[in-house]
Design brief:
The structure is a single chain. With about 350 residues, the chain is of the alpha/beta class. The chain is built from twelve helices and 15 strands. The chain has two domains: about 80 residues, GMP Synthetase, Chain A, domain 3 (2-Layer Sandwich), CATH 3.30.300; about 260 residues, Rossmann fold (3-Layer(aba) Sandwich). It has an eight-stranded mixed beta sheet, with helices on both faces. Strand 6 and strand 7 form a beta hairpin. It is elongated. Bound molecules: adenosine-5'-triphosphate (ATP) and magnesium ion. Magnesium ion binds next to helix 4.
């Protein structure tokens, strides 16, 4: 049999990503194929996930190609697909049931519960919810940490008031202590947040690994992880490698946001991460002078979605210009205006989350 695209494809049908059931061909991961004499070149892209899987796939694909009649040289390039800025990831294919990274799991040993704050859509207020949730949990005498998992667009360095993380000789990094005693780590505390981060693939995974691996968190009751928008590879990698106690999904009341919330929910369900509930942000606006309540973006959408999807509705947060000021000035509303309706709503939500975590 002479060397053809067909025989190469057939050979690659025997290769799967660890933990996946469909072959790399079936999953559409083989992106390029070139045959020149006895040399075969293939490009395989992996949708995020564990960098170790790239090595496994490379080795396996090389092996099956080398066994193919007529192949003198097999050049296999495996790339981890980047998440594009704005969060729309390459089609996510979580490898359900894949192994957790033992090193990471070891480093988060002192943390009792890790909670991801996620959304399907950007700009719905995840970072705002993460910061205020962390502060509200800390107000209830819990030891709290906040990890900014948004490596492309970190915001917790601003929301939580900045600071300079300390590092020791061995390269261990100590989180910054923010108001309320919350330990904060964000890439924005280390690099200039105005410079776009263009890390890709393995470098990105390395950065994430350091975040989880090199930061000394100490004993923590609850770690809140502010995820980037969407269901991209950072979210997937974190959920695969860190023992997540659960996820909180943030949405706004519009139908488009709700469709995306459903996608986020489906992602967590695929990864076996329990969804603790849905928070509806920017639920309504209450006029400070007349008290009139206006549901600017729609009414009751978050609650209905939660009901349809069979997950708890954790509560709604009103639109409040003080939230923007608080976020921009390093003092989230739970700290700056604890008596405001928005701060009280965050405290309520935090109590519901804590109750589930403590179960
Ligand atoms: N309830 C609210 N009332 C008024 N402004 C809000 C509210 N929630 C969030 N905002 C503002 O909306 C903007 C976006 O919020 P935030 O950065 O928390 O969203 P995000 O989902 O984390 O965004 P990204 O997807 O870019 O990470 C911020 O300026 C924030 O201050
Ligand atoms: Mg954010």
């Amino acid at each position: 049999m002479s060397l053809s695209q067909k025989s190469v494809t057939t050979a690659l049908e025997g290769v799967t990503v660890p933990g996946a059931t469909a072959s790399i061909v079936e999953s559409g991961l083989v992106r390029q194929m070139e045959i020149e004499g006895g040399t075969v070149r293939v490009l395989i892209t992996l949708p995020g996930g564990n960098p170790a899987h790239a090595d496994t796939v490379r080795a396996e694909a090389t092996r099956v190609l080398q066994e193919l009649e007529g192949v003198e040289k097999a050049l296999v390039d495996v790339r981890i697909m980047p998440v594009q800025a704005g969060g729309q990831a390459a089609p996510a294919q979580p490898q359900v049931g894949s192994q957790q990274n033992p090193a990471w799991a070891d480093r988060v040993k002192g943390i009792k519960h890790i909670v991801a704050v996620a959304s399907g859509k950007g700009g719905v207020g995840k970072s705002t919810v993460a910061a205020n949730l962390a502060l509200a949990l800390a107000r209830d005498k819990r030891a709290v940490a906040l990890l900014d998992g948004d490596i492309y667009g970190p915001s917790q360095q601003m929301m939580m008031g900045g600071g300079q993380p300390m590092a020791d000789q061995s390269g261990k990094i100590y989180p910054v202590e923010a108001p309320g005693g919350v330990k904060v780590m964000s890439l924005g505390l280390i690099i200039d947040p105005d410079q776009p981060v263009i890390w890709r693939g393995p470098l990105l995974m390395k950065a994430l690994e350091q975040f989880i691996g090199d930061v000394i968190w100490g004993d923590v009751d609850d770690m809140v992880v502010d995820l980037p928008p969407g269901t991209g590879d950072i979210a997937i990698t974190l959920c695969q490698n860190v023992p997540m106690a659960g996820a909180v999904i943030v949405t706004t009341p519009q139908d488009v946001a709700l469709i995306d919330a459903r996608k986020a929910l489906a992602m967590f369900q695929k990864m076996d991460v329990p969804v603790l509930g849905i928070v509806e942000n920017m639920s309504y606006y209450e006029c400070p002078s007349c008290g009139h309540v206006e549901h600017i973006f729609g009414d009751g959408g978050g609650e209905r979605t939660a009901e349809q999807l069979g997950v708890p509705f954790l509560g709604g947060i009103p639109i409040d210009p003080e939230i923007v000021r608080g976020g921009d000035s390093g003092k989230p509303i739970v700290a700056s205006r604890p008596d405001s309706p928005a701060a009280k709503a965050f405290v309520e939500i935090a109590r519901k989350v804590a109750a589930v975590l403590d179960q």
